[in-house]
Amino acid sequence: MKPKVLQLFAAGINCDRELAFAFRCAGAEVEEIHIRELIQNPDRILDYQLFAIPGGFTYGDDLGAGRILSVEVVAFLRDTLLKFHQQGGTIFGVCNGFQVLVKAGLLPGIDGVDVSLSWNDTHRFECRWSRLLVDPALGHVLPANSILPAGSAHAEGKLVLAHPEQAQTLADADCIALRYANLDGEATEEYPDCPSGSEAGIAGLISPSGRILGLMPHPERCLSEQSLPDRGFGAWGEGNTGIDFFRGLLSRYLSQAETTVASS
Hints:
The chain is of the alpha/beta class. Helix content is 28%, strand content 23%. Strand 10 and strand 11 form a beta hairpin.
C-alpha cells in the first residue's frame, strides 16, 4: 500500500504537476483537490498521510504572496489540519505553499517568534539555482549538512523576523530546516547564493514535531542529473538528492506500509 498524498489546488497554483510527479516517483499515491471542494468536506484530509500545498501565485498574489489562500486555510481548514498533524500526518508547502503555511501560523510552530515573508532584497522576481544546506533539524529527511540543489523562483521569498535574535530562537528550537549555501557548502545571506536576502540565510522552516515543513526553492524541479545546471558534472551534486528529499518526507509512511504488507 502506497502512502497517500492530498495535494491542494487553487486559482494560481501552477507547480502542481511537478510536485505530484515528484511524490509519485518517491512512491506515493497523489490526489489533487480544489480548495472549494475541500472546504465543503475538510475531514477528507484525515484519510491521507501527507497534505501538500504546491507553488504558484495563488489568487494572483493579490494582497501579498499566499495571503488570500492563507486566510481560507485559517478560516476553513486550520482545525482539521491541526487534528491531522496531531494524528501523525505531515504538512508540506513549497514556495507559495510555504508562504501560505507561514501566514496561516502553521510555521514555525513555536511561541514568541514572529515570522513572515517579504520582497527579495533585489525587489524583483529571482529565478536561479540555489544550494540548500540541510540543518540537523531536517536530518530525518536528508543527511545533516548535505546539500540539496533546488530552483528558486520567487519575488517575496525573504524570511523576516520581528527581532534579529529570533533567528537563534528558531535554531535552538530546531525549527530551521534549510539555509542557502555558497559553493563551499557554507550557509550564507549573500546574493546571489541567497537570492532573497533571507535573515540568517533561512530557506525553509520545520515545526518542532518535524512534520510541518516548508521551503521557498523547488526541490521537485531537480529529480535527476539532467535537471542540474551542469547535468551532473559535480558542481551541483549527482542529481539524486531531490528524489531522496521526497522519499525522506514519505519514509515513515513507506516503512509503515511495508510493515503492514509484511504482517498481512
